[in-house]
Structures are given as structure tokens and as C-alpha cells.
Amino acid sequence: xxxxxxxxxxxxxxxxxxxxxxxxxxxxxxxxxxxxxxxxxxxxxxxxxxxxxxxxxxxxxxxxxxxxxxxxxxxxxxxxxxxxxxxxxxxxxxxxxxxxxxxxxxxxxxxxxxxxxxxxxxxxxxxxxxxxxxxxxxxxxxxxxxxxxxxxxxxxxxxxxxxxxxxxxxxxxxxxxxxxxxxxxxxxxxxxxxxxxxxxxxxxxxxxxxxxxxxxxxxxxxxxxxxxxxxxxxxxxxxxxxxxxxxxxxxxxxxxxxxxxxxxxxxxxxxxxxxxxxxxxxxxxxxxxxxxxxxxxxxxxxxxxxxxxxxxxxxxxxxxxxxxxxxxxxxxxxxxxxxxxxxxxxxxxxxxxxxxxxxxxxxxxxxxxxxxxxxxxxxxxxxxxxxxxxxxxxxxxxxxxxxxxxxxxxxxxxxxxxxxxxxxxxxxxxxxxxxxxxxxxxxxxxxxxxxxxxxxxxxxxxxxxxxxxxxxxxxxxxxxx
Amino acid sequence: xxxxxxxxxxxxxxxxxxxxxxxxxxxxxxxxxxxxxxxxxxxxxxxxxxxxxxxxxxxxxxxxxxxxxxxxxxxxxxxxxxxxxxxxxxxxxxxxxxxxxxxxxxxxxxxxxxxxxxxxxxxxxxxxxxxxxxxxxxxxxxxxxxxxxxxxxxxxxxxxxxxxxxxxxxxxxxxxxxxxxxxxxxxxxxxxxxxxxxxxxxxxxxxxxxxxxxxxxxxxxxxxxxxxxxxxxxxxxxxxxxxxxxxxxxxxxxxxxxxxxxx
Lengths: 481, 263
Known about the structure:
In chain A, 26% of the residues lie in helices and 27% in strands. By secondary structure, chain A is α+β, with helices and mostly antiparallel strands. Chain A folds into three domains: 3-157, no CATH class; 174-275, Dna Ligase, domain 1; 369-480, no CATH class. The longest helix of chain A is centred in the middle third of the chain and has 19 residues, at 189-207. Chain B has nine helices and nine strands. Chain B folds into two domains: 16-225, 3-Layer(aba) Sandwich (Rossmann fold); 227-263, no CATH class. By secondary structure, chain B is of the alpha/beta class.
């Protein structure tokens, strides 16, 4: 049997018992036999030594697993043949090498849990070390100080089997933290959140999961007569173990939260998790990815600017230029990352609009492709037909939405000066099956398109509404940039 | 002595040293712009692979897709994303895909204030899946641009800032600054008149190199910044108009008048 006791230390060399559970979760990656003591984590590693390359390899692995939980050099560990010895050596707060060969009989009684209630009595007996206690007559000791002390001693020497509550990982992460002082500004919660996120990461690593959504709840001072709780839900587009990303997202959201009363407790729950795909590593060292992923970028932009302002493109089957495409908000839940980036097979089709999805059934326009007189079908000017089949190349690269009404000067449309019409007209007529009374006026499109040239603005795509002469108006609809 | 020093300098061929009378050499070849005339005057034979380039325009929507399109299409070939921050108009997907620029690889960010635009551009530059960032800006301080330039250098991304023409007199950290215009102020006349053939039908995009790592360049480069299909259409339309003018010399019918007669 080989026991290792673990403890995280703060910067001023004080033990931090709150981190014991997170440490124990990390230790579960190395051995299934992990238990929690009052102020430390305990792991029994005799069965895992060969797998991880001996004690040295196992300790190296432990350090690398916990390096973002505990700063380097602040993880303290001590070995022992039994768990009380390992714990006792750890509590001496000395380096591994100094305590590794210290015999159990030389340990002070203050580091034995069972002896703590009787320290004064033992002091008067002249017992300071574990060895002193063991040399006393057993029956007298049991009568005066209780059998529990004897049992603990027997377990320390290995004469009696230990009973441990082996640690099991919870199914759902849930942890809370009492804030040292009432936090009045929501951004002040971030510091406490960092510590909760450290524990969440330990839990995720131990379960090999990525988190998809978390709930952050803060409890406020009840005396103020306001809501006692406030919460923040964070949803992520892809499972992640990147706590820095979650912290940044939470910071963006918390910056807009007003706390009506000082917060006293902060708790973090995992709402949804998913198995984390492994990341393939590159053979060449310089091919490693630098920077965050696209999903993280979009979530961060959406958190600050609003999700409706981060848009991606989607083709739409229509003959009306402004309905040929939709710029949709990138939302984390409904849209996988693959939808934004075409897969290899989609890309092989080339950049043509071969992969256009059918128009949505509830689109509200009631148009099918068969009801539409196409852009090319009614082209009046013969020169449009000469241009070849790829009509998309004749469309402008910028579209104005809504179209800009042009002023008229002497029957000529003007935009930064009078426009010279180069090509046209190209007639576009769209009408539908729906009765006239049920369709809005904008559903009927009757336009003559021209390509015009402005000395300053270059080539423009303008159209004229085909209405009676009194209402006829020219509009700028696109720019060939 | 000086001659020997100069010779030894040229023999060393230090890539980080460039003399003012010749174009800078760079270790990495530039990103092909798709315009041979422009490649010839840019250091490295193309757009910088990383860092800020500034394009100044008299008005938004002045030839940027035609100028950047070929390079952006090449960058997006590995399904990496091009981020447009505060684009002035709506990018029209069908036309872009006809120019081999997959619109599904575009991410459009609408940001109102200058601070939001700069922040969004910096976040995009830090993302590993982003190939290139285009940012439209009005007013900006040189220090803010320098910060973005350094971010683009660090993450190895080409970064284009599109600014109004009046910014040409402000200092800028960009190693490459171009001024785009549909007009060539050097010859005041309208190039539509008096020129023959296809090049006369298609107005060229005049590009002036304001700043580069190399000697100053006074000449403006005429680039054909419209798609081949549109070039053919414009040429055909011009030829047709000329035929009609020859056939009916007295009756000058303007396109607007014809459209009016159709209604």
C-alpha cells in the first residue's frame, strides 16, 4: 500500500482545504481509490504505479494535471504506508524529501486526528510522539482515552484494516462559495467565479466532459426587501473545457447586471454537458492552433454587441434580389459550426449556388419558384442574353437594403451627379398565386433594372418601379464594388 | 569604402533591411492580388501576408470587392472565415459566389461606434479560424490602428482597413496604403469618351499607392475591377449602342426614354 496525501497551499504558505475536493477529482484520473480527509485529499496508488511509470512518473502526471488549479510549487504531497501516516507527514508542512523517511513513531501527536481531543491529557502523561503513545499499555489507554485512539494507532501501523469512504464523482456539478464580504457590483462576482470555474474544470477533466451550459446564481442580503436570488444562464455553442472563455462571456453579461443588494453567496451549476471530442495533435510543432475557435469568437461578439449583430449568410431561393439571401444571427443552440463553414463535400461543388435550401415553408411570402417570372426570363435587352449563363456575375456585390430613392434632374436619376445608363432595361416581374387582397404591396415586384455609371461612385445597379408615370421613381439597389 | 560597404550589404541580402530606392524584399511572398499590374508595384509581389493594409476611398463601396476579391477567394479556399466589421452595405451573396468568394465563409459584424468596431476587429484577429479581417472606419487614432496592426502581425493575418479619402493626410502605422478612385483626376476628361474597345466600355479602378516599402510611386494604376461577365456585358452594350447610333444618326435615343416609352 502506498498512500499519498495532497494539499494545496496559498501564496502565504497556508493550506487551502477548499481546494481538496477539486484535487481529489484530479487524483481520480490516476487511481480509483481516492478519499477526502478533513483538510487534504488522500489517494492510494499502489495499483497504479506501474501504469504511470513509477512514483516519479505518477507525481509528474499529478503536477501537470493540477497546474491550472494550483500554482506550481504550491501543491504539497507526502507519502505514507498508511493513510494516517501520509496525512501526518503532510501536516508537518515540510518538503517531501524531509518527511518521506520519517518513521511513524517520530510523528507528533498533534497531526493525528484521533489524538486531537486528548492533546492536553497526553501532554501531561509525557506523550508527544506517536511512538510514546504506542508504548503505553493498551487496556489502560482504551479505558482512559477511548478505543478510537487505539484503533487509529493500529491503522497507522497497518495492524488493522482502514475503512475509507471512496470518493465518487457527482453526476452534476454543483458548488457554492461564500463571499468574504458583500459584493455590491456585479463585476465583483468575477473573482469568486474564477474559483468556482477552477473546480468546474477539475470536475470536467475527471469526467472527460465539456460543458454546454452553466447557471450562475448569487444570493443576496435578505434584509433589503428585494429578490433574494439572481441568476445568469450561459449557453455555449460547443462543449468546452476552456474556463477562460466562460469567464470572459460571464464578464460581458455580468457587466450589464445590476445587483439590488450585496451578494453573499455564489453558486455554479452545470446545466448540460457533452462528451468532449479529442483534439488531434500535429506532428509538426509549429502547426499548433493559435487563438480561440470560431464558436468562441462569435459567442464573445454576440455577448457584447448582441446576437442579432453577428450575422452569417444563407442562400434563399427567390428571384427578387433582396430575397435571394438572408443574413441570419448566429445562435449557439440551433446552428452547428459546420453550418457556417461548409464541409469538404459541400465545397467540392464549387462556389455556385448549388446547395440552396428550399425556401422555408412558413416564409410568409407564399411564393414558389414556379410562380415567379425569372430575372432572365423576361430580360428585354438582348445584351443580357449575350452575357452567358452565369447571371450571378452580373449582380452587384453590395446591396442596399432598403433601396435608396434617387433624386431626379431633368428626367435623369442622380446620385452624386447625373447617372449615365449603360445597360438595360432588364425587366423583373414577380407575382404570385395568392389573391390580391391577401398579399402586401411589396410582394408585387415590377422593376426595370439598369446598370448605370456615376463618375464618382462607379457602376451602380438602379431600377425604376414600373408604375404609372406620375408615381414612377428610380431607386439605387446595388453597387458594383 | 562606401562602395564596398554597399556591396557587402547587398551580398548579405538582409530581408529586414530595405533601401529607399528599391522595393522591400520580404521572406514570405505576398498574397497574390489577382491583378498583375498591382502585384508588380507591391513589395513581395502582393498583399502583405500579415499586418495592416489601408485602403482609402472617396465613398464606401468603391471597388473594394473587385480589388480584394481574388485574394479573399484564395484565402477562403480552406474554409476559413473572412470577418467584415461594420460593412457599409449588405454584401450580396450570389454575386460574391460568382466571384469565387464563398459567402457562407463570411461573418458580418454590425458595430456602430468606433470603439465597438475596433474591439470586434481585434477579437476577430485573435481567432484561429479567421483568415482575414476587413474593417470599415471613419475616425481612428493612429495608436489604435497600431494596436490592431500588431495583433494582425502576431496572429499572421492580413487585415484591411477601409477609410475615407480624407484620411490620406493623417499618419498611419500601415506599411501599405492605397487610394482607390473611379476617377482619374490627372486627365480631367471622362474616360468613357474617346476610348475604343472593351477597356473603354469598362471604367477602370484607379489605384494610387500612397505608401509602400519602396520608392514613391506617382503613377496611378488602372485596374479592371469588375467581373469578366460584366465586362463582356458592358462591351456588348456599348457596341450595340454604337451600331444604333450609326444606323439612326439623327435620332439619339437614350435608354431612359426607351424605358419610358415601354411603360
